[in-house]
Amino acid sequence: MFLHFGMNTFTDREWGEGKESPTLFNPSALDPRQWARVARAAGFRTLILTAKHHDGFCLWPSRHTDHSVRSSPWREGQGDVVREVAEACQAESLGLGVYLSPWDRHEPLYGDSPRYNDFYCSQLTELLSQYGRIEEVWFDGANGEGPNGKRQVYDWPRIHALVRRLQPRAVMFSDAGPDVRWVGNEDGTASDPNWSPVNPDRVPYPGATGSDVEEALKHGDAAGTIWRPAETDVSIRPGWFWHEKENEKVRTVENLIELYFSSVGRNSKLLLNVPPTREGLIHSVDAERLAGFRAHLNQIFARNLAGTGKWAAQRHGKEVRYEFRLGAPATFDTLGLQEDIRLGQRVSRYRILSQSFSGWGEIGSGFTIGYKKLHRFAPVTTSRIQLVIESAAAPPMVLTPQLYST
Ligand code: FUL
After folding, report:
1. Quick check: CB of 144 below 6 Å from ligand 1?
2. CA pair distance 361, 363, nearest whole angstrom
3. Phi, psi at 193, each rounded to 5°
4. Torsion from C-alpha of 37, 42, 48, 52, nearest 10 degrees
5. Distance 14 CA to ligand 1 centre (A)
6. Ligand 1 touching residue 324 (CB < 6 A)
7. What distance in Å separates the CA atoms of residue 128 and residue 226, rounded to the nearest whole number?
8. Would you give the DSSP letter of residue 142?
């Protein structure tokens, strides 16, 4: 779960300018434990908090700037949101991730490249050394400076090395990875094909632009040399931050299920943003939707009708044909495929067939599978299904299918 919370929560904006007075930050009932409970009940594993968004206001008392919670009236300047979130994650057995915006509209050093890089690394050091284990570090590529704005050249090799040294198990996210890549849009849809391998030259740094960048982010590369799976970041509301007027625009349970199928169901991780309110709580509407989302997912995936059976594979020239037989005919409308990704990602085109009294009929088709691919279709009743791999980058290794009835 992504949590956008900070100065913008209090100014009702999406991008602050960096000139906001810290006195505006004053959540009346901040309770990260409530965020963590909501997240855990909904099945999330990690909370990623905007420790600093583009406006530069820090949710922890950084020693390197006054523009932080320390200058706010909240907890009389003694508070630390990052610490409270870290403790809540620990208490609820969740991982913790941090978003530290590279673009900083408040910090005067921004644009003075070497000095800002020092500043940024100092802030990162605080976040990565004071709050226990960090699962993910999120580098946002956004920059709204425009052609006449400040120009900051980030020292990415140094930044990456710092994360590796301080939190060797953390994954780093950005357009350009290095570990997890942006999926190329913010509407919650991964593409097909979606290769986890990438050719790193195509997106050389976070925020890189160019005609090929979007394609590279969306699809990855069949022949890529680096394993960099896509992460789909999307908000449960129209904005990333909480706005009173959007309380009526929270995604419905149905829409959240769509998101699940268009992200997790297309070989991507889902990073769903749920922004806390000005009080410092997850709003009841969002909490309700998330509970409904979990209940619906549980219902869909309650029972895998495929049991523990195995595929039988046969090669027909260039094609590999997998066949799966059920002990008795079953009715299902959702099918999950997975490759054994310990051996890499290989499948590049396939069709799924089911046998009925009138013969074999197609119930789905696609390009890549990867870690997970989910298909939904009108209910079929059958005891035999086939997966025809029409092309693959190497001999395919597809795991037993999963069959569900919703
Ligand atoms: C974007 C930012 O500009 C948005 O404010 C938000 O943080 C989103 C996740 O990334 O690049």
Report:
1. no
2. 6
3. -70, 150
4. -70
5. 8
6. no
7. 25
8. -
Does this model's pTM top 0.85? My answer is yes
Q: Say yes or no: CB of residue 233 within 6 Å of ligand 1.
A: yes
Distance 131 CA to ligand 1 centre (A): 23
Q: What angle do CA 373, 263, 292 make, to 5 degrees?
A: 105
The whole-number pLDDT of residue 390 equals: 97
**What pLDDT is stored for residue 57 in this prediction?**
99
Rg of the chain on CA atoms, in Å = 23
Nearest to 327 by CA among 405, 403, 221: 403
Q: In angstroms, what is the span from residue 48 Cα to ligand 1's centroid? A: 13
The CB of 142 under 6 Å from ligand 1? The reply is: yes
Q: Which of 270, 396, 288 is nearest to 343 (CA)?
A: 396
Structural contact between residues 104 and 52, judged by C-beta atoms closer than 8 angstroms: yes
DSSP string covering 92-106: TT-EEEEEE-S--SS
Residue of the CA atom closest to atom 4 of ligand 1 = 240
What local confidence, expressed as pLDDT, does residue 164 receive? 98
Per the DSSP assignment, residues forming a β-bridge with 173 are 138, 180
The Cα 262–Cα 242 span in angstroms is 24
Side chain identity at residue 376, one-letter code: R
Residue ID of nearest Cα to ligand 1 atom 3: 142
- Measured in Å, residue 140 CA sits from the centre of ligand 1 at 7
Atom of ligand 1 nearest to the CA of 141: 11
Domain architecture of the chain: domains with CATH: 2-300 (3.20.20.80), 312-404 (2.60.120.260)
> What does the pLDDT read at residue 80?
99
Ligand 1, atom 1, lies closest to the CA of 142
Amino acid occupying residue 347: V
pLDDT of residue 211: 84
Distance from the alpha carbon of residue 381 to the mean position of ligand 1, in angstroms: 45
In contact, 251 and 239? CB cutoff 8 Å: no
Q: Where would I find the H helices in 181-338?
A: 211-219, 253-262, 284-300
How far apart are the C-alpha atoms of 43 and 270, rounded to whole Å?
Answer: 12
pLDDT < 50 regions, the chain: none
